[in-house]
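Comment on this:
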Amino acid sequence: MKKCLLNRIQSVMKWLLSFYLIVLLPQNVIGQCGIENKAFSDGEFVSYDLYFNWKFVWVKVGTASMSTVRSSYKGQEAYRSSLTTRGNSKLDNMFIMRDTLLCYTDRNVAPLYFRKGAREGKRYYMDEYWYTYPKGNCHVKMHEQTSSGDHLWKDAEYKNCIYDMMSIYLRARNFDDSSLKEGDKIPLPIVDGLKVANAWLKYNGKTTLKMKNTNDKYRCLIFSFIQREDNKNHELIRFYITDDANHLPVRLDMFLSFGSAKAYLTGYKGLLNPLTSKTN
């Protein structure tokens, strides 16, 4: 059960960056797969603590951090974003978690390359995606190295834009929330493994949120990440993001089959815009 629990926590953490999800509407040409970036800057760094509700007590079990810098990819100007998740000593006693995610996007945040390497317990596996845009479509070359060492490959082409768990985070932070109404649902064409996940976001309105272990408060927009499995809709994560131009996730509530977890923002630097949502 502990291994199953930690597998579930890690699966949720990979979506962390996975607020990554907010307003992605179907697109038809490469020019529309990108968006003018007004939300983040070169040199941004954010960090989170992860807590799990263990027998009615919230226990810190790990951390996550993400950085974004200017770079180049095959001679093209790009953003390079990386995410690491690490279990702490308490978690290591039950289950080792060491994940590293990397992505390159162009300067308009259209995806170019993604890689995830994950050590979970005694398992190690890797996912890789390469993006090209022939004739206005989105072509994705997918590579999966399984924990048994097998290499699986797939090529697929889509009329709509397709994102991964990192590039969607950068893309979504630049959304325009002025037209959203409570209850709106936003589809999420996102590649995961060798398939495209059937998932969406639901907008749940606004709130003011107090952070854990500090007096910091933020005005936030609330979104639920929902995935359809076994002919049922399941809310997996509830995101609280800043109601300002940064659209920075400050808390994530994760609903597991046998418990719940939360991720709290613990630090940030290099933000592009003033954090006007912070109320004290």
In short: Residues 42 and 69 are 5 Å apart (CA to CA). Residues 17-30 have pLDDT under 50 and may be disordered.
